[in-house]
Amino acid sequence: MPRRWLRRVLPDVEKYRDTAVARFLGPRFFHPALWHLNRRSVAGAFAIGLFCGLIPGPLQMLGAAIGAVWLKRNLPVALITTLYTNPVTIIPLYVIAYQIGAFVLGDGHVMPPAPQLAGVSPARWADMLFAWSAALGKPVLLGVPLLAALLAACGYLVVHAVWGAYLRWTWHRRTRVRRRGLIDSENP
Q1: Distances (CA, A) of 72 to 62, 66, 69, 98
Q2: Per-residue pLDDT, 112
Q3: Which domain does 105 fall in, by range?
Q4: How far apart are CA 79 and CA 67, in angstroms?
Q5: How far apart are CA 73 and CA 38, in angstroms?
Q6: CA distance 129 to 114
Q7: What is the reported pTM?
């Protein structure tokens, strides 16, 4: 099921062979490992996508693409996985990253309260936001890579385990069907 489902939802590499972007990227873009669907490739790509999803700004997919090409893991899965960060999830993720960073630093860091911007002039507004962002500094700078590594490791293990459990389930199901077919054919 994972491979069959993924083949159905992921793009076909042959559609992109004759595009200008593909010619620009060259043959490395069409390496079979970047499009192969197996447990190792998909789990690795999922981990790459989870790690790169916490890269700030529009560089998430670029980082995931570079990581997938460099490590030869499934490119579409790595790109799609970065989409777990969005305007709704990024703030809680960065709060968690701050808490992880503060815990590791251990200096009793307390997250500064967000500035109250109601009724403040725009010039003062920018100064207040900059000061608040600077106050988040060290814990966030340490917490984001730690959270990204933790998410990547957990994601890799979960995909690997789920894929393996599915393979074992289908193997046992196939064995039961074969046994049932042998038993039915022996008793006419």
Answers
A1: 15, 10, 5, 32
A2: 72
A3: 2-186
A4: 10
A5: 10
A6: 8
A7: 0.74
Specify the number of domains making up the chain: 1
Q: Is the dihedral of CA 164, 167, 169, 172 positive or negative?
A: negative
Q: Check the CA dihedral 69-74-76-78 and report its sign.
A: negative
Look up residue 126 and give its two tokens. 């920018």
Mean pLDDT, all residues of the chain: 81
The residue assigned the tokens 């998909």 is: 42
Mean pLDDT confidence for 138-154:
92
Does the pLDDT of residue 149 top 70, yes or no? yes
Rounded to whole angstroms, how far apart are CA atoms 47 and 62?
A: 15
> What is the DSSP secondary-structure string of the chain?
-HHHHHHHHSPPGGGGTTSHHHHHH-GGGG-GGGT--SHHHHHHHHHHHHHHTTSSGGGHHHHHHHHHHHHT--HHHHHHHGGG--TTTHHHHHHHHHHHHHHHH-S---PPPPP--TT--HHHHHHHHHHHHHHHHHHHHHHHHHHHHHHHHHHHHHHHHHHHHHHHHHHHHHHHHHHHHHHHHH--
